């Protein structure tokens, strides 16, 4: 077999505000790979099945001079994200051809992995879609599950407000909160998302583009838990409508990602007056503590239909640039994934 | 015995920025009291020995239309604060003449207490100054002690940054942190305060008016615990210089009290990127949980000289108006108290 083109998604140009769907990320087929003879040097050759596209990627699409908590992607190189791939060849005794691996991989149709640190083999005896392992059964699902276990301190009868409640993290949070007997207020940006949030159990679901978050919280609050994906004005409203001892779980500040920075928090005084707890959540902190419980619990619940979940599926790595913009603008309905190959 | 004038500190006028030492609070002697015949209606008549003057009072000196977490003081009435008083007469079977009581009392030379809810009898077998029970062995000391127990999660070798480190809360925090083996960075606003912070164990003590907090934290940080009395720009710097998993204990935002409101928090993104915990501390939440431990532990330590402590003493209720301004401007050196009578 001779070398074939290996399509990759390259970080081409740092965006100023929203990424440009044509110039920020570009699909490139100039590199080739020989699936039979490319040297593995003790590693494995995999074929990508699915990639996740997430809002946090925006923060890494910057020039390396701009310091931040995460590493900037290298210009001219493929970006990386969560993925499931199938093993085509292996020189690693622990990994066999035909097995599936989950990890943080370069957006390429094929790639060779030498260092398997952090890579997990996925058996999928539950038989759910491979794409789910990058969403509800992957990083976003874990974010909800770990954060809920570690920080929510939920008590039956309490009220939670979940932002981006139709997204992969938010929809999981809604379902975990309902399992624990909470009243759930949830927001999203379209009527179909509102309907989905109601379908999965939200007691009060609303479209923040057409209804006033302030009015909703005034009517249905105060809130004991605030699950924050957005920051900015909504965080300030949540501070006003927080109950005493409320827990704020901070997962994202998407309002600031494309507007030159995080918006200042105006109503911080409520932290003192109401004895609030604000907790930054990073999923990676809990992998060791809760990882096994998650994989033992969640894929089975998905297979049995106990946890509901939506995907926003695009096909082919060519769609990455546009899909990232969709995700950042909230135009996706469900977890954004790119299917690269079915098997 | 005939009625005598009963000096009281009246809330006369709501201030716009800093209180005016002459018009915000006024000392008033127009009311009289007969110490032998004034009816008690089942209560107790007490003579005030000492009152605490604290920055938080500023928040209650407002017109009642301005909503806040605490109740506004009533215009034309005495303000209230923590006090130790001696019992002159009693119709309550649980309280005897000559006993001492601690509570949140009206700033008056004499007053009659009917409801003893929240009032604590103080035996003081340790023989420390009564004034200490409104400071290091009172609300400020408890704020430090309770907050440390509940939220610090201190580990030996970690670094803490304490603001207003020469104050009654801050100086206790410094000493608790040193007992637990932490490295202590502490700030205050004069060279004598800096010297005092060094004397009680601070590893790095600095005058924030003459040295750059940013430079100090850059050099001696990152910080694992931030004990915040000030908010504003210093809070934003602490967010920048926080270590991963740092705990922020929020006790006061004094920067905003006299400048028309709390300053917005600019660097909130660090909460996510460093998995920070921000905790609003209100001393009253822990009275039941830690109150007995505190009174069993701290007065004895003070008597034995194990915990050091400074007071800024004024005599007579006439000094209340000016003393509050001093406290808000940080012109006091030590815990501000008003001695009304020695015994």
From TrEMBL, chains A, B:
Coiled coil: none
SMART domains listed in its UniProt record: PKS_ER
A GO molecular-function annotation: oxidoreductase activity, acting on the CH-CH group of donors, NAD or NADP as acceptor
InterPro entries hit by this protein: ADH-like_C (IPR013149), ADH_N_2 (IPR041694), ER (IPR020843), GroES-like_sf (IPR011032), MDR_fam (IPR045010), NAD(P)-bd_dom_sf (IPR036291)
Alphabetically ordered keywords of this record: Oxidoreductase
Cited SUPFAM superfamilies: GroES-like, NAD(P)-binding Rossmann-fold domains
Keyword Oxidoreductase included in the entry's annotation: yes
Occurrences of domain Enoyl reductase (ER) (ranges): 22-338
Domain of life: Eukaryota
Gene3D superfamilies xref list: Medium-chain alcohol dehydrogenases, catalytic domain, NAD(P)-binding Rossmann-like Domain
The protein's name: NAD-P-binding protein
């Amino acid at each position: 077999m001779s070398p074939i083109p290996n399509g990759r998604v390259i970080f081409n140009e740092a965006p100023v505000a929203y990424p440009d769907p044509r110039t920020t990320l570009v699909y490139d087929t100039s590199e080739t790979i020989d699936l039979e003879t490319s040297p593995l040097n003790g590693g494995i050759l995999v074929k990508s099945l699915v990639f996740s596209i997430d809002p946090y990627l925006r923060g890494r699409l910057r020039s390396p001079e701009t310091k931040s908590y995460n590493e900037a992607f290298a210009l001219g190189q493929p970006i990386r994200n969560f993925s499931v791939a199938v093993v085509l060849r292996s020189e690693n005794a622990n990994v066999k051809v035909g097995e599936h691996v989950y990890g943080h991989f370069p957006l390429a149709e094929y790639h060779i992995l030498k260092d398997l640190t952090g890579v997990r083999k996925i058996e999928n005896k539950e038989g759910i879609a491979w794409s789910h392992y990058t969403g509800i059964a992957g990083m976003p699902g874990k974010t909800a599950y770990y954060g809920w276990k570690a920080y929510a301190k939920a008590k039956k009868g309490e009220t939670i407000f979940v932002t981006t409640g139709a997204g992969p993290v938010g929809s999981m949070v809604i379902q975990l909160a309902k399992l624990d007997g909470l009243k759930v207020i949830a927001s999203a940006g379209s009527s179909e998302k509102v309907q989905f949030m109601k379908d999965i159990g939200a007691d009060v679901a609303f479209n923040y583009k057409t209804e006033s978050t302030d009015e909703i919280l005034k009517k249905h609050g105060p809130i004991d838990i605030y699950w924050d994906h957005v920051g900015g004005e909504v965080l300030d409203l949540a501070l006003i409508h927080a109950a005493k001892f409320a827990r704020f779980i901070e997962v994202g500040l998407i309002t600031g990602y494309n507007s030159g920075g995080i918006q200042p928090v105006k109503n911080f005084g409520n932290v003192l007056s109401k004895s609030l707890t604000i907790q930054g959540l990073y999923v990676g902190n809990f992998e060791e503590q809760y990882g096994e419980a998650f994989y033992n619990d969640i894929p089975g619940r998905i297979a049995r239909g106990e946890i509901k979940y939506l995907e926003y599926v695009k096909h082919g790595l060519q769609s990455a640039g546009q899909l990232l913009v969709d995700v950042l603008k909230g135009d996706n309905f469900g977890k954004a994934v790119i299917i690269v190959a079915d098997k």
